[in-house]
Write a structure and sequence with these properties.
Elements (H helix, E strand, L loop, with lengths): L3 E2 L10 E2 L6 H10 L4 H8 L3 H13 L1 H23 L7
Antiparallel strand pairs: 1-2
Helix pairs in contact: 1-3, 2-3
């Protein structure tokens, strides 16, 4: 059985399917948020159906942890977006 793992150097430490760069949130975004059938998610991501269900099980058991990753990612995106809109120096 595949395990859900976390390593600091892959996906910023987010939970993912071992041996892949497919995060639990990637699976949940398709299956939960987009309402795609688990078999379709497995096919689209190139993983087994059991890996989809394992990721979804982890997702539901750890909702707050995954929501914290989502908030952190949104904050980082907002920072980068704001910094990229501000000129480095004034043009005269």
């Amino acid at each position: 059985m595949t395990r859900i793992v976390r390593t600091d150097d892959v996906l910023g430490g987010e939970p993912r399917i071992e041996g892949t760069r497919i995060g639990v949130r990637h699976v949940a975004a398709r299956a939960v948020d987009a309402g795609q059938p688990p078999a379709h998610v497995a096919d689209q991501l190139g993983i087994s159906l059991s890996e989809v269900y394992e990721a979804l099980s982890y997702y539901y058991a750890n909702l707050e942890e995954l929501r914290e990753f989502e908030r952190a990612n949104e904050a980082a995106f907002d920072r980068v977006e704001n910094e990229s809109l501000e000129p480095k120096e004034r043009v005269q």
